Each structure stands twice: as C-alpha cells, then as structure tokens.
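re the bet — no i am not wrong, look at it urself. input seq straight from the record:
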Amino acid sequence: MEVCYQLPVLPLDRPVPKHVLSRRGAISFSSSSSLFGAPDPRQLSQRRGAISYDSSDQTALYIRMLGACVVFKQLFARDVRVRSQVGFEPERRSSHPYLCIDFRTLHTRLSCGSSPADSGTEKRVHRLLSFQRYLHSSRLLRGIPQQIPLHILDEDYSGQARCMLEKVGSWNFDIFLFDKLTNGNSLITLTLHLLNQYGLVDLFQLDMVKLWRFLVLVQEDYHNDNPYHNSVHAADVTQAMYCYLQEPMLSKSLTSYDILLGLLAAATHDLDHPGVNQPFLIKTDHYLATLYRNTSVLENHHWKSAVGLLRETGLFSHLPPEDSMNMERELGSLILATDISRQNDYLSRFRTHLDQESLGLSNASHRHFVLQMALKCADICNPCRPWELSKQWSEKVTEEFFEQGDIEKKHKLQVSPLCDRETNTVGNIQIGFMTYVAEPLFGEWARFSDTRLSQTMLGHMGLNKASWGGLQAEQTAISEETETSARGSRSKEIPQGSRKS
C-alpha cells in the first residue's frame, strides 16, 4: 500500500522541496487516498498532529527527529518492522508508543550500535520534535526568520494578565481575554500559575526548566487552527478543573498527588486533537482507529502524546520508575474518561454511588473516580458558563463540526450527525447537547457537591438553553417571513393574461 506522504530524508540545511506536503500537524486531507481514488503523486496532502485523513496511511509509522538521518535508517532496519513504504519523515516525538520503543531502550541501542564518529549525531537523536517545531528549527538553521517567537525561561506575565490570575477561581473567568493578554500563551501561563499556587513545583521537586519546556511543548502540540479543540480550550478546561478542585468536597480530601494529576490531565486531555471525531477516523479506516481497535481512539492518542512529552522532557525522571509509570497510567485513566461515547457508563456508576451514599473520599480509588467525573464536567462545561462565553464556545465547536462535514461532502462520505451546515444550526445542536448530555451530568454533580458553584452552573445552563431557544424561534420566524415574501413576489410576476378567469 502506497503512502501519500512519502519523503526521503532531507538535511536540515537544505530547503524543503515545493512538493512537500502542506500540513496541519500530522493529519492528511488528501483526496488522493485509496479510499477516494487512485493516488496522484502530484497532489499534496495536509496533515494534522499524528493523524492522517488519507486512509492509505492506516498502517504507516511516522517518526520525526532533528537530524540523525543515518541513525534513523539503522534504527528502522534493526528495530522496527515497517508494514508500509514510509519515508523517513519528521514526525511526532510522541510516536514512540506506536513503535513500542521505550526511550531508554532507544538510547541504549543507539549508543551500543554506533561508532564514535557518530557520537555527535547520536546526541541529536535524543531530541524529538513535533512537525511544527521541526519546521521552526529548519527555518532557523537555514537563516529564515521564525514566525513564532521562542519562549524564554525567565518570561513572566504581568499587568492585566497578572490581575486576572488573582481571580483565576472565578467561574466568570474570561479565558479568551486572558489568552490575548498572554499573547496566546494562556495554557502555559495558567497551568504554571496553578502548579505554583498549590506548591506542587516545590513539593514534587520539579525542575523548572523541564516543567517550562513540557508546558511549551504541550501548548505547541495543540492545533490552534482548530476552531474548538485548541490550546485555549485546554486552558479553559484547566481553569474549570481548578474551580472544581476548590469545592469543599474535593479540597478537604484530595492529596497533592491527586491535584497534580488533575491539572496535568486537564492541560493535556485533548493533546494533538485533529479536529475530527472518532466515527470519522473509523469510517475512513484510519490507522489510529486500527491501532486502538475503534475504542476511545482520540483519547488514547491524547494520552500517548502526553506520555511522550513527559518522557521527552524528563519531567518525572527524578522519581522512582515505578512512581513515574503509575503517574502515566493514572493520567491515562483520567484522559480516557473524557470519551463522550462512554458518558452513560460513568454517569450510571456515579449515580449509583450517590444513591447508595457509597463514595468514600478517604479511598484512593474513589478519589480517582471523582477526579474523572470532575474532568468530564470541566471538558463539557461550556453550556454552564455565562452567556457571553458560552455563546462563543458554542459557535466554535459547531464550526468545527461543520468543517468536518465539509470534508465528508468533498470526499463523498456520509456526513456525520450534527456536521451538515445546511440542516443544522448552532441553536438546535446546543439545545440537544444540553438536554441529553450536559444536564444529566451536571445534575448528578450538583447532588455530589451541592454548592453555590453547582447552582450557578445549572442556572447559567438553563438561561443559555432558553436563549438558544429564543434565537431559534426568531430564525424560524424570519425564514417563514422570507419564504412568504418570495412566494408573493413570484405571484406578482405572473402575467394577467395567464391567469384563469
């Protein structure tokens, strides 16, 4: 099977040929895949993150690293069974889960199998890059100015952004304004502030250089050309998670370890999201759907991407290996809980605990379950925000749905539910989401934590639902009036002589 994005290894000091694909991360939109017709080598694909819309990539393995081309070839020849013809393309540094190669194994084998002359090259292999950062590095080495400024370690937030952080626990926190005030670095700034506020940096002896690098890489691996699933959404979820962590039921019982996991899970829960949903990946036979057997495909990918960043930066390398592995596993458990297709399972379990009053937060497994529910609430809390914020999020998520529908129409695929812009509106999508998804979840959360915040969220959701209903009624009235006027205009254009007496 031929892969549409197949490139030879290119030295970083040479310009990228014009035929190299224009991509968004690692997802490909090429209509040249075998799903849509015979591949045309002249056509270019776009990719986002580690995901390709081209079904011919379903068994492809991609790695991107900075330099070390010779070592790449040796590594693939010796350790990796490539099931399709794949060029040595610069790809995600978190691709190692797909290859089942641990970083320690990778480095050990490279060290044992190369000569002293290759030592300088080997050092560069240790640095794995996302595609976006690979391109930035390439531009710098070729003397092309970088569009996005490099983050510096002593960069600090000040002025209005600092004032906003003083009220970071407010449910009315405007993440859109905060993102502007931090020059698009809302996720980095907010997460670092919360970790410091809880004293987690000192408590877990986190290296500030590694922590800063980790947060920068996390933010960069969100695709900000996604209308909804971008770094601002991740920052918004992290801020909502902080609000829930402050609730009396949680603040009295959660350990520092629980809080660290909760904040990291919120920041990374949609890492490298491609802007399409799981059914799209399944029906296009995407290789990630095959890899994860059509189960929590995106959530598994977000988790593996987060683990890749943790290992790349060595954020927890000072901890005992067993503790580090447990943290990675529990981080995955939290991220996997955000799979909306498993909503009823979690909700049913939560409701049973509340009915039987069996939740004991002195129990570590029960605390973890409550963290899962808190992250689920934070992930879909947009309908519970004040109207000015909720409306913006509603429009953004709907536009992302519609963009997927446009892609499906372009390639003559069955359009997914809610993704057809000709038959759906923001209002009816949001009313349905609130009715069948948000209200049941937040109703149970209010039973668990009956506080002012819970009542505020339910109040906002009720008002927002009514507002969308009013807008829907207005749009329907306008449409009917327009149709009536059009019919009247057509009747006037009929000549008198053509009418029956």
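see?? The radius of gyration is 25 Å. told u. also Residues 102 and 225 are 31 Å apart (CA to CA). so pay up
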